[in-house]
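Protein 1 of 2
SEQ + STRUCT:
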Amino acid sequence: MKPVNGKVVLVTGASSGLGHELVHQLLEKDAIVAATFRKQQEVDFFNSKHPAQGLGVLADVTDEVAVQAGVAEVLARFGRIDIVANCAGAGTVGAVEEMSDAEARRIFDLNFFGGLNIVRAVLPAMRKQRSGHIVQFSAIGGFIGYPGMGVYAAAKGATGILGEALAGELAPFGIAATVLTIGVFETQFAGRSLAYAERKIDDYEGTPAGKFRGAIGNLQGKQPNVPEKGALAIIHLMEADHPPVHAALGADAMGGMRRKMACIEQELVEWQDNAASTARTVEGV
């Protein structure tokens, strides 16, 4: 295991949830932490609390110019970035048909393109170092397409696939990438941070999507996982000599992933003859 003490870790979405707790736990373990915030007062407060060991960066991850400037600020201060925790994100609820174009693009901008901006900004320095670790924060909702969260699931699924591709692309440079499939944690994801589609189609009432829309708010305060333990588990992955490409965070996430993989395997077996029917014959037809 390689301890995080002394390593420079860039954490996005540090103002709340898992990102906030991860920053706290990293500082406790003597890592050097650069944390992105969207409000200047949050940056100022962080810098006043951690003048030597931390650096607050004002950057909305959806703003590519701000991200590039923020990463340059981190590199100017610390000279390197060893680990990136792409935490920034938020959820949205609604059937796919209910989502407007603007709502869908907003959730992709934050959950997918924001992380992509960070990755593109840090990779030149990491390639020069020939070392680094990028942790892509996906979710069980990005591994399983839950009715009622289709657009969010698609954005988080894209985040995971991007991380999987990065693992293959960056391995030759000594850079690891991990897709973190996160379960349900006691954060404000199901509370004040959660957005709902403005349009509501009555026909979905009583369907899985409609029931989900009505029930997810009741989850607040009943989540099975706590951020403090989640942050420690993430740091454990960061300290691995050979980090995994895929990792679950929470027993609920692990169980959901296993159930989906079993269902896929069952369907593949049932339809394997149909899948194989496309093969070229000896006659070339």
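Protein 2 of 2
SEQ + STRUCT:
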Amino acid sequence: MDRDVLRYYERGEEDRRLREGDGRLELWRTQDVLRRVLPPPPARVLDVGGGPGVHAEWLAADGHAVRLVDPVPLHVEQASRIPGVTARHGDARDLPVPDASADAVLLLGPLYHLVDRADRVRALREAARAVRPGGVVAAASIGRYAALHDMLRKGRYRGERAIVDASVTSGVLRATPDMGFTTAYLHEPQEPPHEFADAGLPGARSYGLEGAAWLFGDLGRLLEDDRATVLEALRAVESVPSLLGVSGHVITVAARPR
């Protein structure tokens, strides 16, 4: 695993990121999408790169049998404490699980940090191997323009311009610690379905999680005042092609052919 990526996650901040502030929108929209596309509980869900178990926790509470695999020892330790979740160390590109052993496989983080396309396709191919025929594979990606928008929103674009502009051109973000992230690959909206297809998962559909709402200066107030309406509005436009490139995060979903 890339040492910069490992150091970033060893700080232990991933759990809090999704439970507080604007990060809650990513969590709630992930729940919204997955609860519509996953098999009904109880299902065998493999959460690959599941971090400290933020998503595994609510999936287990919904009644799913959740196995989590993550390359960060701290995350495995944290996720192991969650009732109904089993966790072990592992790599998305070489999953330590039998063929067709899951009803659904989630990759809600691995594609972020696999900067080489071959590695991303390999991880998706492993997910396709691990899921049963007809089962669901869902993977999250970060939008190509997320760093640009985030730095503009925070008034920090000028200071980070060289790094940000390089990410727009190549897709590879070499973030500094001051940027609040680490090395990552930022997808163009049309890329994930092609990577799915090359991994043997045709017919993928993409869902923008935050749309343009994550750029609103008063997002926190909106979420506190009327969270349900915000989620309904974003659901209505989640697959509009012109908005997928604005969303900070996108989830792409396909079923393994029978």
